[in-house]
Fold each of these.
Amino acid sequence: MRFRVELIKTVVLISVLTASCRRGDDKSATDTLFTLLSPDNTNISFLNKIDYTEEFNTYTYRNFYNGAGVGIGDLNNDGLADIYFCSNQAGNKLYLNRGGFKFEDITEKAGVGCHGSWSTGVAIADIDGDGWNDIYVCKSGKPGGQGRSNELFINNGNLTFTEKAKDLGLENLGLSNHASFFDYDRDGDLDCYLLNNSFRSVTGFDMNPRQREIPDTLGGNKLFRNDNGHFVDVTTESGIYSSKIGFGLGVNVADVNRDGWPDIYVSNDFFERDYLYINDRDGTFTESLEDYMTEISQGAMGADIADLNNDVWPEIYATEMTAEDNARQKTKVLFDTWETYRKKETSGYFHQFTRNVLQLNNRNGSFSEI
């Protein structure tokens, strides 16, 4: 028996900000107006359809309903943002921005469909440094299944692309969720942090925190250094955890301590705590979350980093799967009793709570959860 679930119906929201100020008022009123544009207006008709079967479902694949990524970037250097949609079970789509919020599906011509694979995250960046944005697609899906090799589409400069992940060293068979391209060693080219989810089951884990120091031969997070256009795995020597307990769902790059060098924040689901990698400015990182923070989300779904109070120091906001009420919270699988919480804490998994957190940067090497 098959069930069809429609996960994502794509629309384009156009935001127009209007502000009005009246003399004599103590405050100004600001309204935000959103106009909903239909597929008939935009020509975007992407739909991420998921087929739930007895062989492939949430029981056989933990991240079955995690969704897929969307990448936005200018792919033909015309100053307009184009859109790349990832699909879990069908082909991906590339829509070229023709202006006036009109888009054209150029997927087949461009050669970036990724048919027959479970695509997750997507990164758009000028990976080879030729002045044209490229597309890197992360792959996941049922462990043991086919089509899990990540794909790198190099921009040919004419709205066509050539797949070169293996040639450049970025082919990966882990359960990849996201990738971030940034110049961590400040040598003028883009390096890559690849976020891979764990193959192992969540249940039945032991609480030895030293597990995070043991590399996972099947997957694990990766750091690739760009050496003259070829990406070299420098994960271990750079101080990056690549273990089987890293259930990563989000990765962000920002200069957290404002020393001029990019740092890395990784959001981990389930029992493992998040990671904050501080750049040592010599090609290595020091994982320092417990030095910077006092508490975090338990099963982080992802995070964002931005300066929220205009003091030029970045804050960190992490999202969780908080229930709508306390009764629901206490019936969730991740609800911890006091005994379980203390056991995790004393075993090295830090102070984790099932809620969103906003970390205020104290500008002194620490954050306060507010």
Amino acid sequence: LDRQAYFWNIANWDALDKRATSDVFRCGGHAWRILLRPFGSSHKGVLSFFLE
């Protein structure tokens, strides 16, 4: 098993809009990015996190 890590520093968390996307990174031979919805997709108080 090949282990890799990606660190994404999100500055000004309180100022985020409805969504934030990371830069594209490579892991496991694939290109990925993270889609973050700090207020959830449809509910307040929920964090939604997607790997694209």
Amino acid sequence: MQQDLLRRLMQVATHERPARRVLKGGQVLNVFTGRLLDADVAIEEGIIAAVGPDYAGEEEIDCTGLTIIPGLIDAHLHIESAMVQPAELAKVLLPRGTTTLIADPHELANVSGEAAMDYLFGAAETCGLNVFVMAPSAVPASPFDRNGAGVIGASRLAAWKDRALGLGEVMCFPQVVAGDPAALDKLDAYAGRPIDGHAPGLRGPALQAYRLAGIQTEHEASDFAEGLEKLEAGFALLVREGSAAHNLEPLVTGLLKHRIPTGRCAFCTDDKHLADIFTQGHIDHCVRRAIELGMPFAQAVQMATIQPARIYGLNDLGAVAPGCRADLVLLENAARMTIRAVYKDGVPAAERLADAQAFPVPDSLLHTVKLPALTEEDLALYCAAETDAIQPVPRQLLTRRVRASVQRDGAGRFLPDARYCKLCAVQRHSGEKRLAVAPLEGFGIRGGALATTVAHDSHNIVAAGDNDADLLAAMRALAEAGGGYAIARGGEVHLLPLPVCGLVSLESGEAVARHTDEMLAIAREMGIPAGVDPFITLSFLSLPVIPAVRLLDGGLFDAENFRWIVQ
């Protein structure tokens, strides 16, 4: 901090001069002690100068009856999962109290590498939020993936050290535990910086080895026993509540029941769709839900503010205290997280967003879908009457490998029925004809097909349907649009275009949320069960670093033992 600014702040703190703006008469949550204090908040040049009684300001805001808390922090997310540009996402998140994001852009980076990272760094600076970018370690997520960017190893990662906060989630945990030099070189490149983990289901000695590598956080715990073991191994536990993974309830319930201190816990969304943010909220939803489960208000807010700030070394964020950024949320009803107003850098959210700018999208991030010429015969699956199938676990990212008794035609080709539809994974970055097909249980689709270029983390095309004509129609529509979501029903195609790397829209947040809801309504008409988001479900079925079985463009993959499944 420059000395001139520091002197002005000190003069405000000691009542020698009025502050630029003072929030007066509210109750301030002190996140260091958990106490609610009657105090004014004096703000000068976007920084909190003082918290205490009787401060005067050039502008004074009456906060009588309001509770003032720090701006909320999402401890781990992929901005791309909202499917809008960062400036559009800020318009949705800031009014809901989220002021800071710890963003891992490995979705964009897997498609377009350095060009995508340059775009994201630029967009982060102009969007109106505090966006701290983690260098993406998972490009690709595993040696078995084929993405668009190739392999981003330690030397390419090191080039971003001046702009990145730390190293993004280290997904290929078997390589880390095995001491693979390429994996350890990435960790060495960011030694001393925050390093995020990704180790679903990893327990026992292997978890100990993973922690030894210097990985500091974990957001993949799906139940309390796993979360507790990771906490006790020294990881910061990021409690995830997204669109597909709903881990908050079992983790918070267990933490409260067993009276486990939560000082090393924080909330994150990981992947959350705009439609869900509009209806539920963002990190405010996590706080609200934790309170509903019995967590005290102050403790829940600490998990959304000071604790993620400490985990990531953000010393001027996460508290209403002198020297912190004036990122503040004013609550009408604390227990319900009912927001009256949000201040970013000491100014109302609307003013801050008015100054925000969308960052130009370079042409190199457009037109990234190169679908090979395909026929219905290319989609044929010749199999035995009993074969391996994928069964998604409800409300989780996990899957099960099941033996399926399937219908076949006279030539031995798999025929979809009410229980098993056809799942396809198709390479879309190179134009090479490389694809795989497997039965998918419980998806429910009848009379058509769904396809998406949002398919973690290599983002090839993943499609599911009950007939080949509609599967091909949906995939071809994606190629024409440059990516997105597609539904084909009897030859009629409905499309949500996502032309930026096949992941992000050029439209507003409201338009994307509305269009997503329309696509979901059509999917429901086609038999997708209530409570299942078909596109989010599809988007994780090709991610080989989450157990137990996945479909990659190279075939069915055993994600527990890291090997191909030979049928």
Amino acid sequence: MSFKVDLASRLENEIELLKRYGFKIPPQLDREALRKIGADAPALMRFYEKLRQLPAPDSPLCSTSDYAAILATSPSDIALTAPPPEALENKILGGWLGRAAGCILGKPLECGVTLPEIKAALGKEYPISDYLPLAVTERITTSKQSSLHPLTTVPCSREHLAYVMEDDDLNYTVLNLLLLEQKGFEFSTEDVGAIWASYLPILYTHGAERWSFINYLRGMPIDQVPLYLNPARDAIGAQIRADMFGYVCPAQPRAAAELAWREASFSHVADGIYGAMFVAGMIAAAFGAASMPEIIQAGLAQIPSRSRMAELIAQTRQWHLELSDWEAVYARIKAATPQYSGGHAVNNAAYVVNALLSAAGNFEKGITIAVMQGHDTDCNGATVGSVLGVFLGAQQLPDKWVGPLNDRLQTSLRDMSAVAISELARRTYRLTMPDEQERRYHISKCIYCGSTAFGAGCPYGPDRKHVHLSDEKHCRFCNSTAYGAGCPYSPTRRHVHGPGQKCVHCGSSSLGAGCPYSPDHKHNRME
């Protein structure tokens, strides 16, 4: 992998994106005009700037990315009741395990396959009823001339599966756990970039995530980060990052969707954001809903009803009622979405809905149908597994699917190369506890106005935001007076103090380089 940019190809994709949203492309800015430019980079950039200046079209379909406007065009939220604490912890673990199982099932097929191609390659293994044998995945990847390496396909195969190998779908779930642990529920979109810069190697990102990350590191204004040279900004990327926000907002789909909107806005717009809000809303609803249709409706209540995504999901639900056969519904979705790539948010959301409705609460049916539909197989398998894992709870998940994972997750994040899935679930559960949130985020008052609130609203603080500092003696996470290792709640397991004369990350009294825990490896203190 490298940072080399095929600028002409990106601009072709930009033209296609603009067409999807109803922009009128004049002849001097169409694909034929683009091809005539060739590889002249300055001319290509001038062409791009003209594309950016095209007037927004009038359309009956909603494509806003503004949260207030999204709310104004969304249906009413659904009232649900969260489960008791003991059931809540089981459901959060179920979400993590279900997500991991669905992801690993789909990962070897993440090569743009379609249902007919999967059928042909599987032979007697169709329909899928277990993790795929290595011979099948090798046959598919060879026939598709896939770039998937044996180091990817072998650890996911039935014969060799012993842990959950690294995948971007799971990296982002862990990353958003870190985001909430370190920045709190009042995190900003800028905080998303800071967490990525601290933990996520940029060459492990793809598509919209890669280009928004580059834009952020270049210092672009946050509102331009998801837009500039990013023709994948309405693709599936934010949709696969949203699960954590559902986990920490049990039975509160609107709260989950708002967190997902804030995080997704770092890299996506319009349908790309709606996918994240839809998934977060569904997962939050799965803690208290009684059926898959109720879960899907709770997700739909978070996005504009006249959006492309909402309308296709509504069609998918109707097709399911009419046809009652997931393969027939798949064919309808496929025929209705030729304008979308295999990694787009809109069509893949419909495939997820088809799997959830067809499974009717059966975990194995859900993840296998999600994967057998092809397209973004690991993403859809993970999302369906997550929803069903929360709905059923860990204790109800078949050992055939979760046992081979051995509670081990590999990531490509800094300081988290290997971690127990159960530990991630415990940390997630702690974030849902009111007393824990009080300890973490409300242990002090605003230094300007005395309020215990966080975020916007302070009449005296910078940017009208409340600013809090803990006293210098007590750890900000657990109230211990100790320094160094031992804190059970902080992200690094270190007691973190401030203000005072000691590093807020490791407790050292020195300043400058040398801190092993701070993002820039420097000792920092809060003055």
